Amino acid sequence: MTEKHLSSQFDSELNMVSSRVMELGGIVESQINQAVYALQEFDSETAERVMETESRVNAMEIEIDRELSSIIARRQPTARDLRLLIAISKTTANLERVGDEAHKIARMVKSIIESGAARALPSTELRIAADMASGLLRKALDAFARLDTAAALSILKDDDLIDKEFDGFVRKLVTYMMEDPRTISASLDLLFLAKAIERIGDHAKNIAEFIIYIVKGADVRHASMNEIEAQLQ
């Protein structure tokens, strides 16, 4: 992930913290997959395991952030090295928030199971969107490990598909609620789930933007797709 420096110790520190971020990403990805499984199978025990993992994710984020602060204080990096460390910090924060979203999904799945009303609602589309969001996060982590700007650009485009899935799902839920007011409570639960899934896609998009920031030194958070593509040429 990183370029070689005169100080082999600095390289070792960068590699170590980068490995920790990938480890955190793997845990969070597993959280999402388990949350999706809990949603697919209405499995309360799996949802509980997702929720129990949150404390581990939170602790890892704190540890990584502490190590980054130590490296910056000791090494006083500049240019690309500083961008890398800043991007790692922001990526870690986004991964922790993905874990939060997985926790929300698991908590809501348990609530839906207890209500017993969700099986009559259109949850299949929600599962498709969840699989898309999980796949997008996996692509973002792979791209971050390789600092692959082409893959980052592809992720930014793919996030639009998740947004479209969310919009379509919301329209379908509104139709269900209008046709049968008895479904309002369960529909709102599913809407909450859909928003959490959409947010996972947003965090994957953020990680892709950090890749471009590291490699090109350009902040593309508010840039159009044409402007981003121009930056990468």
From TrEMBL:
Homodimer. Its main location: cytoplasm. It is found in: Cytoplasm. Residues 22-108, 128-210 form the PhoU domain. It comes from the Bacteria. The keyword Cytoplasm applies. InterPro entries: PhoU (IPR028366), PhoU-like_sf (IPR038078), PhoU_dom (IPR026022). Plays a role in the regulation of phosphate uptake. Keywords: Cytoplasm, Phosphate transport, Transport. Pfam families: PhoU. The keyword Transport applies. Belongs to the PhoU family. This is Phosphate-specific transport system accessory protein PhoU. It comes from Variovorax ureilyticus.
